[in-house]
Specification:
The structure is a homodimer. The first copy, chain A, is an alpha/beta fold. Helices cover 47% and strands 15% of the residues of chain A. The first copy, chain A, folds into two domains: 151 residues, Isopropylmalate Dehydrogenase (3-Layer(aba) Sandwich); 163 residues, Isopropylmalate Dehydrogenase (3-Layer(aba) Sandwich), CATH 3.40.718.10. The radius of gyration of chain A is 21 Å and the shape is globular.
Chain lengths: 328, 328
């Protein structure tokens, strides 16, 4: 029931996901049953054994205080969905709702994994060749160097076991590439990461995000969130301006028709919707946060990410790797 | 002599600037005289009363340690150029060299303005409507809330007196728009800025950089540098990919010819080269830092920024406004 277009888009995405992902044995739509049935009917769908509705009476609003939401809205779609994961009735949750509330509900109800002090949002982004993982994209601020080391271990496992990238390279987001460049947090993280078994390649500047070698780039959630949103808004603005300019007169319109396929293939690479939601790593369960303004495609792909995360259980690897590093 | 294309590009830009900016009474090229004369000859130019060469024997390398550069390379083009400003023989310096060294040389030789604890790099960027100033774009890291308040005062004066924007709106870069969202630094800065006479509009998220209302956005140099470089690299990648896609086959090439003017007008708005260098605010002099990889156009526009900064002396306003705020 969270996000800007609920329950319409989540229901539509769920119907499509059930058609295309046979790995889903059961999909539970948690929320207002009447509204969900109404949305299902638009797609000629009804509840079945494989498509279940779990009725709830409350909704966490986008501006609710996270901890209050968890405490006072016990029958919200978000809290109940997290409960399902906690009870083992579901393997994963996908939510486009209030990020802070989802983080609070997940951390409070599911708890963090052994050895994890803070959970972190891992976002997958396209670069010149392939993709990279940016984390923390905004789960928490004022992290300590030890937290960023945990993010590196978690991101490494995500990359290796879910994204299927062997020997992922880890970098620290910084304002300079040389060792010693950075702020107190990034420099101390650098020193700690050198001692871990991860393939640490050093500092990564803003310039090297899209052209660089790093597969996982760690930073504090404050910086990560600003970086992520800056990227999203610049992309949006760029393509908006291009569209306006390409349709400004008849000659350009004619040209635009001829280059349409070019933009389709660019959109395919750069469309955030294709990458699905962000994985909340570090909690004892699989939690996927989709953007509040997620399209049906974005929600569909978030469900794909959920399937992949369930198929390739990454949490046991995280616990094992963290134990090794913490015992160094 | 600093930057990636010295002395060729700086000399070329200087020749063009002298043609077009009658306000420049004298332009001093500081560096290796023989090399500079050689570059000048390519443009049919020779030293005159208005175009002077100041011969120096050393060059600060891009990877020199800042403080070492200032201490040991006293006859470098950068140090001598700052000396000229210090002695009053020049009104402003433009450099594409080592950022850290320029900052160190400027701070050590020119000193900070009364009331200023830290200098900050102010970068002008395009947004949907008009422009905004991001600062600190990387002069220093681990700033205190009081530093960010000074940045706001300095950016406000820059906006008002040089960019000619009346009543500039000030925002704090953060990971959420509501009051209370942010890290320790941004929240404390928020509280302090509420008490100042600047037109403070609150937190600005990454989403609102290009669409938002803020004319000046303050942040720590670590975050500012990452944000700036992320924007630069994403722009570069986007237009590179567009170019590749538009030239991938004959149909698209034909279309690309028809939409060429569209991209020319987009480039005009988004080309960083048109905005010139970053102004180092807070030092007792006018210091402009051009990108290390600056084109001739970018250097030419950095000289334009220098002329505007000299014409509209902003430092007295900064000193006056800071005194008011610090005495609150």
């Amino acid at each position: 029931m969270g996000g800007d277009f609920a329950p319409a888009y989540p229901v539509h995405a769920a119907v499509e996901a059930l058609k295309n992902f046979p790995a889903i044995s059961r999909l539970v739509l948690v929320g207002d049953e009447e509204k969900i049935r109404h949305e299902l009917s638009k797609h000629g769908a009804v509840p079945t054994e494989r498509l279940h509705i779990f009725h709830t009476t409350q909704v966490v609003a986008m501006d609710d205080s996270p901890v209050e939401a968890v405490r006072k809205k016990k029958d919200s779609s978000m809290c109940r969905a997290v409960d399902l994961v906690k009870e083992g009735a579901a393997d994963a949750i996908v939510s486009a709702g209030n990020t802070g509330a989802l983080l609070a509900a997940s951390t409070i109800k599911l708890r963090t994994l052994p050895g994890v002090d803070r959970a972190a949002l891992a976002v997958v982004m396209p670069k010149r060749e392939g993709i990279f993982v940016l984390m923390d994209a905004g789960a928490s601020v004022d992290a300590k160097p030890e937290n960023l080391v945990d993010y590196a271990i978690m991101g490494e496992a995500y990359c290796r076991h879910i994204l299927r990238k062997p020997d992922p390279k880890i970098g620290v987001l910084s304002n300079g590439s040389e060792e010693g460049k950075g702020n107190k947090l990034s420099c101390e993280t650098y020193d700690l990461l050198k001692e871990t078994p991860v393939n640490f390649i050093g500092n990564v500047e803003g310039h090297a995000l899209f052209d660089g070698q790093a597969d996982v780039i760690v930073c504090d959630g404050f910086v990560g969130n600003i970086t992520l949103k800056t990227i999203e808004s610049l992309s949006k603005l760029t393509f908006k301006v291009i569209k306006e300019e390409l349709t400004a007169n008849f000659v350009r319109l004619a040209g635009a028709m001829l280059v349409k396929s070019a933009f389709r293939s660019i959109a395919k690479k750069f469309n955030a919707d294709d990458y699905g939601g962000a994985l909340l790593l570090g909690v004892n369960g699989i939690v996927i946060k989709a953007h509040g303004s997620s399209s049906v495609l974005a929600l569909y792909n978030s469900l794909r990410v959920a399937v992949e995360a369930v198929d390739n259980q990454v949490n046991p690897h995280i616990v094992e790797n963290l134990a090794k590093v913490h015992n160094l």
